[in-house]
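Q: Hi! First time asking for a complex rather than a single chain. Here are the components, and I think there are three in total. Is that enough to go on?
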Amino acid sequence: MPKDILIVDDAQNIVLSLEFLMKNEGFSVRVASDGDEALKAIKEQAPDLVLLDVMMPKRDGYEVCQTIRACDDWKNTRIIMLTAKGRDVEREKGLALGADDYVTKPFATRELVAKVREILDMESK
Amino acid sequence: MNHANYNRTKHRLIALSIAGFLALNYPMLSLFDWLELKLGIPVLFLFLFGFWGFFILLTAMVIENSPGEER
Amino acid sequence: MGLAWQWIVPLISISYLGLLFAVAYFADSHSGKSSSLINNPYVYALSIAVYCTSWTFYGSVGRAAVSGVGFLPIYIGPTIIAAIWWPLLGKIIKISKGNRITSIADFIASRYGKSRGIAAIVTLIAVVGIMPYIALQLKAVATSLNVLVHHLQFGFSDEKFASPWGDTALFVAIILALFSIFFGTRHLDATERHEGMVAAIAFESIIKLLAFLAVGLFVTFSLFDGPSSIFKEAFNDPQLIDLMGFSALPGGYASWFSMTFLAMMAILFLPRQFQVLVVENVNENHIRKAAWLFPLYLLIINLFVLPIAFAGNIIFPNGGIDPDTYVLTLPIFGEQQWLALFAYIGGLSAATGMVIVAAIALSTMVCNDLIIPALLRFQLLISEDLSRIILNIRRGVIICLLMLGYLYFRLIGESYALVTIGLVSFAAAAQFAPPILFGIYWKGASRRGAIIGLVAGFIVWTHTLLLASFALSGWIPESFLTDGPWGITWLRPHALFGLDIFDPITHSIFWSMLVNISLLVGVSLFDKQTAVERIQALNFVDVFEQGAKGGDAYLWSGSVSTFDLKRLVARFIGPNMAEQKFSNFIKINRLVLPENGQAPSRLVAFAEQRLAGAIGSASARIMIHSIVKGEEMDLEGVMRILDQTSQVIEYSQRLEQKSAELEAATQQLKQANTRLKELDRMKDEFISTISHELRTPLTSIRAFSEILHDNSDLALEERQKFLGIVIKETERLTRLVNKVLDLAKLESGLMEWNTVQIDLIQITKDAIDTTSKLFEQRSVKLEITLPEKPIMLYADQDQIQRVIINLLSNSVKFSPEGSGLVRIGIRREVDGIGLEIEDNGPGIVEDEKIRIFDKFHQVKDQSGENLLGGSGLGLAICHRIIEHHKGHIWVESEPNQGATFIFILPTTKPKNS
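A: Yes, that's all I need. Here is the structure of the assembled complex.
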């Protein structure tokens, strides 16, 4: 059974590229364009991994991350934060809130794919 | 003692004193100088004693409502 | 008539005085302790009621019976001035405590350079002025005693008066003298308060109040059915009805006014009032309560005056009974002998209280300010221990004073009504008001001015009241009154310079106050004060600023040994007392005595103060002067010290100013710092935001480039799609970079402007054309209201067009899709051309209206969604462009009611383009 990945970003083109990359790796992919949609999708079915943008309207990535980590049902869901704000403080904040990894935009597609695999493989072990 | 408070009380008392002096002299008094009884008392007597008492009441209120000197 | 009233009454009188002794003795034994009887505002207020003498007790009714409300100003005046006792009397008391003032003469002398001359003058005025008043009390006691005994024995038959002892007044005088000696001369230091005396007069104040109320209640409610029944009966009597208005008052309103004024002055400056108010004051805070308690006492004791007076007039219609005796005769008429006796005791209380306090106050003044200076001058004080001698002098003075009072009574007292004598004394005491009041509020008042004013005022008083009273009593020829002295008509005592519109008292007050005040002020203005005067003036006027320490310390620059100093003080207050006071002072102030035995100047000042307490400030100064070797500091020396003091004050003021400036600077720094922090935060946010704005398209570009690069097997369709995205994002990135660069240019002033004459209408039309596609896309309607004629102004065509395009595209984005409506209009305004663009979008909340023009401020709705989807740079650029053209741009909006962006451009040609 393929791993389920949720992509959350408000920039439509970025979602498009991520969707292509993940599908190309054989994962099953769902998308959301803001925090609320993301939580709705997670509630429907907890994904194995969330690619989560930080700066979004309505609910930002930190909040979504916090909500996921606050619930025991979703403890197996991995989270990779994506942000266009390159400051260290953002990174620290993301990790402190329970994200598994952190990627700065613009990212190298291969590195991102490798990171996703690594995190999901670790989990499967 | 709070100096501003003391000054305010002082000014109130001075104003009160001046008002009393004016009210209890000509021409104010001439307003009550008619030979008539009200409540069985001549109007002039009634005014003089009534205002007198009222004045004392005001003085007491101004003074007692002001903070005293701390010792 | 079973009872032997002629023995009972004197016996009860003596017993009552014995009771007073007991009260006084008890209070004295508790004096100075925490259990002190008099250390509270209630006793203080009651002791002030020594103001109510037999003149009040008997005379008020007497005056009311012939003049209606004519007695009232005497009590209303003190009520009015009592309201400002706290500030006024408070200042006098503070000064007096700081300077160890023993009497009113001492106060005035001390203010005017510790002058012995002025002390003597004040004392003389006080003695001459108060003597009639003491006589009045003797007369009242004697008369009341005789009237009481006579009517008790014989009722109201026509029996002749038969005094049991011949001359009652003499006995009264002797007994009161002994009583005063007992209370007043136990200690030498007159500033040590007489607690026993104060307790006794407070007690007497209660007795006289109760007695008067008892008579009032009996007359009003037993002889009659309440006050209204008295007044109704009087109302129907044509002779009495006039007493209910002002027509019965001799002198009318002018007299009312002058008596009110007199009483206001008398309550403060009669020597006995000064004694109880100032010298005997335990705690300045007691003034607060006394300022309304004492007027309340006056109100209560006067409540029944009018009912009793009218009742007396009704009951004794033909004038057979002296109205001054109604308080006694009405109870006897009602067959209440014991009530009459109680009333008599009340009157006795009123009289004795006044006599005792007046005798003590006057004896202190006479002894300190007349006799001791004289003895010093003629070097008659050679004994080592003078304290006994001084005490005996005081005792002698008291006896003399009462004998003088008795003499005055014998000579002219009989011919005068009580109230007139009292007013004569009041008018004398009023002479002290100008030197004291000017003295404590005006530093310029000088010794010579005070002396000349006092003397002139006193001469006028003597002429218009005292000599006139002599003439009235037949002591000097009556022609003195009617034709003037030596037949000079413009010197007639009751019509000086032909001024005959006033009653005698008003007339005298008018002239005496006029000369007193104008000479005091006039002479002072042209006078030069001595050093001591200046220092004392400063001490008095600025007492609250300086504290009560007094400026004596630097007056003595000469040298004196501590031994001599102590010996001098010991001569006046006794060696043991002197030793004790000196060692206390040295201990408390931690004085270090130099080894050569020289007294430090503070100790000299202290010695002078101790002496002042015993013999008055003027004499004390002379005494100290006599033993200090070397000169008293000259004026220059004193001025130098004063200057130094003022320099110190100035310096500290400058320091204060500096510290205030420093504080202001700190405040400004803080604000600047806050603003910098805010700017820093904004810059940080700016970088963060710009980074986000740039990275987002970059992310897409890079991602798709890599996808295309790594996946050569992509379908053509997909490849085209991805390449399209890359191109679009690149365009977006380019626009953004251009905007950022533009903004940077605008901000740094590097933007090149091409300012020419342009037609705003044409530019607007072009901008509308450019954006028309956007409107079509979102189906937003555009209403255009443009003038037909061109509107010319000087501006950069491209930039202005950019502003309009920006505003138009914003408005499209804001307006709801489908139902959107945008209006654009141009019109002339006062200060230029206005262009406004109105949409029907969600509007802008108040605090966003200004921030909206900040760079990277993106308009968000309540949920935080970026509504514009823009970079947040557009409006910032518009703002800068319009600003550059000396115009202004702003937004008007209510939430949910759309927003209107307006800019105004001036039509004038810019100067430097």
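A: Residues 551-633 of chain C form one domain. Let me know if you'd like any chain examined more closely.
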